[in-house]
Give the backbone structure.
Amino acid sequence: MAPHALSDPGFRSMNGTSESETARPLFVVDSPDVNYSESDIKTKYVYRTTAVTKTDSGQYVARPKETVYDFKVDRHVGRVGMMLVGWGGNNGSTVTAGILANRQGLVWDTREGKRAANYYGSVLMGTTLKLGTDTDTGRDVNIPFHDVLPMVHPNDLVIGGWDINRMNLADAMDRAAVLEPTLKSMVRKEMAQMVPLPSIYYPDFIAANQTDRADNLLKGDHASMAHVEQIRQDIRSVDTISSVRNC
């Protein structure tokens, strides 16, 4: 079975509302070392450091050193495939459910009241960095991390993965016992269609308490290249899905 791909190709914001991939960037850099085109951003960066040598007499000699780097960033953000090892585990099932909740802008009931999907726990989506100082107010200007450069939004990830257990992601989500029941019911239908690919299983490298659940395994042993080739094919299958959905 091919890895399940989250099917909605739209780009969505933190609260689930649709945004355009071609929206105007939050900021531009006005510098002779930065060049924008329709397809890419080219920059020149000078890294300055000091090289220190020691003479025979014991004196240190410091020489300024410059290294020039040329960077090129594609402005078009393509589809990105993400393969999770242990997709049916606590982390894999919870992350998948979280992405679905954010893509759909879900709101659900909890004991503390209603909660809405967000990416506040994500370094990429929930943090900011200092861009500079406002010339009018003198205050720091901070921007979301994900707006620094064109980059994939978590909602657009094409997700697949492996697990030594063939349980679908809906049941795996129940087994993990992490998410609120109301939220689980909202994403269950899609999660039930997601089944991990067969995984490599080498008991010497896996906790002994996992043996009973190992029912989704690749045939063969680590003495051959068969497992390596199969994993490569699995990764290519996600790449194919990503390419098709990007057309």
